Amino acid sequence: MRQRKYEEFDADNGTALRYSRHENGGGFVESRARVAATAHVGPSAYVDRGAIVGAYARIGSGAWIDGGAIVHEGAVIGPAAHVGPGAVVGRGSKIGARVKIGADAHVWDAARVESDEIIRPAAVVHASSRGRRAA
């Protein structure tokens, strides 16, 4: 079966969004998102318009990086996770499977968020020796 090279959707405001497959992993990246060539965007993952994914970041299969979100260098986003609009995931952070990060939340460098956690909008998650800690 042949894989589609791109997908097109209409946003709620009528804007046409065009997603093409990322060379490294085959996930979908919107034409106005910025994803480093060394990043891995897993199959069926989506990176929305205005999002930024840094070098060597890994986006798991089925994950969704919402518009305006930033995933910094070396961060790992687990399968089926959602990084909300305007949220920031720091360098080397690890986000587990099915995690929901709310709009404008900030996960600091090297922080860990366990699978199935929900991070509230605008929350701050610090790295600590005892796991996730929201401020």
Structure write-up:
The chain starts with 5 loop residues before the first strand and ends with a strand. 0% of the residues lie in helices and 36% in strands. It has strands at 6-10, 16-21, 28-30, 34-35, 40-41, 46-47, 52-53, 58-59, 64-65, 70-71, 76-77, 82-83, 88-89, 94-95, 100-101, 106-107, 112-113, 118-119, 124-126, 133-134. The strands form 3 sheets. It has an 8-stranded mixed β-sheet with strand order 1-2-3-6-9-12-15-18, with no helix packed on it. It has a 7-stranded mixed β-sheet with strand order 4-7-10-13-16-19-20, with no helix packed on it. It has a 5-stranded parallel β-sheet with strand order 5-8-11-14-17, with no helix packed on it. The chain has 135 residues and is mainly β. The protein is globular, with a radius of gyration of 14 Å.
Task: Produce a short descriptive summary.
Helices cover 0% and strands 36% of the residues.
Q: What descriptive keywords fit this protein?
A:
8-stranded mixed sheet; globular; mainly beta; 135 residues; 36% strand; disordered C terminus; single chain; 7-stranded mixed sheet
